Amino acid sequence: MTRLPSPPALVALGGNAERTRSHNRRVVLETVRRHGPLGRSDIAALTQLTAQAVSNIVTELAAEGFLMERGRRRTARGQPPVDFAVNPDGGMTAGMEIAADRITTVLVDLAGDLRAQRTAALNDPSPPAVQALAAAELRDARAADGLPGRLLGCGVVMPGPFGVEGMSSVGDTVLPGWADVDAAAVMTEALGCPVTVENDATAAAVGERLYGAGRDCLDFCFLYFGAGLGLGIVVEGRPYRGAYGNAGEIGHMRVVAGGRACACGGRGCLERYASAHALAERLCDAGLPTTPDAIARLHEQRDPVLAGWITESAGLLGPVIGLLENLFDPATIVLGGALPDTVIDALVEAMRPLPLSVSQRDGRKTPRLQRGATGKLTAALGAAALPLLDRFEPAI
Amino acid sequence: MTRLPSPPALVALGGNAERTRSHNRRVVLETVRRHGPLGRSDIAALTQLTAQAVSNIVTELAAEGFLMERGRRRTARGQPPVDFAVNPDGGMTAGMEIAADRITTVLVDLAGDLRAQRTAALNDPSPPAVQALAAAELRDARAADGLPGRLLGCGVVMPGPFGVEGMSSVGDTVLPGWADVDAAAVMTEALGCPVTVENDATAAAVGERLYGAGRDCLDFCFLYFGAGLGLGIVVEGRPYRGAYGNAGEIGHMRVVAGGRACACGGRGCLERYASAHALAERLCDAGLPTTPDAIARLHEQRDPVLAGWITESAGLLGPVIGLLENLFDPATIVLGGALPDTVIDALVEAMRPLPLSVSQRDGRKTPRLQRGATGKLTAALGAAALPLLDRFEPAI
DNA sequence: GGATTAATTCAATTGAGTTGGTTTAAGTGA
DNA sequence: TCACTTAAACCAACTCAATTGAATTAATCC
């Protein structure tokens, strides 16, 4: 993640009036984003700010284009409130998924709606070539008509791990030429706007936190089926990256004694069985196609190879879910990634009954396991959510 | 933990001048606590507050007895700074470990030093009896001469899980009569000061965060050998409890296929092998004594039963350490609890070489695994650290 | 149409940090 | 010894942003 070049202060910094205002702006914006159209005094009640303070901040945010008036609501008595909502056209964020062979770009507005989408083949994954192609893709995506002009930031998802020098770790899948590069700096230079670099699972989790199942959860996990298997962790509403940015490395957990050999040097690693890549391998061996659309069709046709993979993966993943629940006690666990929605649903179904864990409680509102809302653009959309989180989310 | 009766606001609250001051007071206090004696302008540099703001806050904190002047430091040129340090006698916190058969009470001053310690047998673990005994123990402990008068709060460690109704979960070890009780409220009523209730592992982690190996780590784990095996998790400097307060339930991870039966209904659970209780069981079967002191002696004598347990436990725990590192990417993992220091050290040693994980990096400063600093009073001392964290730690 | 109710704004106040200048307590060096 | 330098700390005026209490506005109720 190229974060923490010097470990951050071990103690918080002091505050002042300006920081208070900045914090309160975020609080107001986030409150409106989450609760939909609200009047000024609704906001005041929710944030525990005074009506006057909210009034000032709302005026400011509306003038800057982040909030928009939505007219008066009809109420029983008294002056009806003027509702405000986030102005979708108040700005955009970009999300990019940089894979070994292609770059996927999305533009998302402040309402979280997809406004543009592109994919380009990447022939040369070296940093200069990626810089050039990414810049061109972003420029071309922004050239479409009717898009908000303001670009608030760009999130980039790419194979990690990054940053930590001398990382001789498990599952090093970094792109050629990017091993000792400050990816965020390289991409910021290329794109000309603030860039946040993240791994696919964490980005997906952030996307889910802003727009999906995680909207109402402060603590949850996202199990991401990509080339490998990744775990995105949200703690107190914010992504958890660990002391060195490598948290959530779940793919190399040993689940089969003496199982298949893995690139990490071990055997029986989880992601050698339960990952998009493992499925593709299996389909390939059986002479079947491996594109997402083809997999979706295979699932419709109840293909036995695919069904077998689902059953096997579910059998391996079930205990892992229980383990995650016991360790993190998440409000929910979201499944998603580079697999068709129907296959994710089948996996969720095949994992029942889930093992006993602290998550097994009477009267749960949220399901222990659910599919993510954002579909196959999950990673890119999650990437687009990163700058928004940076900009809107106040510290709790 | 009897927290979150209503899930807290999903968005932060607004700030104002008073909250800013409260935050800055914490920042100053915590900075001095961590860095030892500091002059006002040192504090200003570290906190990024102005010297004037620091001066005002320091004056206030000194008047309240939290900080004390330590005289002028000798410097090269210019007016030498007046150093301030945390005033040990500025207040105390109490820590209580309530077990099925006894209550251990400690009093700790603001410097983290143990000032009083008591243990009393508990014949009746029902809430009223515990209330009466705990109140008497706290009163008697405070009666000693020369103790600071001010009691800032009390942390209580007791067998969980609490709070969540209908919890039909793994390893329910709650005391008889406490199943559907708001433990924090009961103990607050009994002790007449703010009470934080926590499980042993999390309390130990907080103690380590304030005074031990976790002082310089924002993210780390504490593996606690108690009756069972607990995991305390510190994230961004604060204890992580999960969405429902049950995070860190590591003891029932299956590590031996078809292994020993466990109270949770499963087989081969980790804590049936690697826990103080499992060791006691094993020693008992061999006709050996099971008190901590006796275990320490057995270890000195290189007793083969104990040595066998250490080897076996280390074999089971090693992969678990690797798993935790891959999931949490902690700065370090601390081992501690109800075992003699020498045995913890032997366990750490027996786990080498640790498995490959993201924590295996060149140039580590902190060890991947280390013994906790607080010895066999770990749980009670950790409990005493809880109110201090509540009071001193600013949000990052 | 006046009374009631609730949202919002206006104007004055307050709390807290910042700014710029001043004082204080040392060491330096002629 | 005494003016000079340096850095810490303080003083007083200022500014920012939230709060407070009163006034205004826009609806419904009767």
From TrEMBL, chains A, B:
Cross-referenced Pfam families, in alphabetical order?
A: ROK
SUPFAM superfamilies named among the record's database cross-references:
Actin-like ATPase domain, Winged helix' DNA-binding domain
Keyword Signal belongs to the record: no
Could you cite one Gene Ontology molecular function of this protein? kinase activity
Residues spanning the signal sequence: none
Q: Keywords for this entry?
A: Kinase, Transferase
InterPro entries linked: ATPase_NBD, ROK, WH-like_DNA-bd_sf, WH_DNA-bd_sf
Record bears the keyword Transferase? yes
Spell out the family assignment given in the record's similarity comment. Belongs to the ROK (NagC/XylR) family.
- Name the record gives this protein: Sugar kinase
Organism, as annotated: Alsobacter soli
| Taxonomic placement | Bacteria, Pseudomonadati, Pseudomonadota, Alphaproteobacteria, Hyphomicrobiales
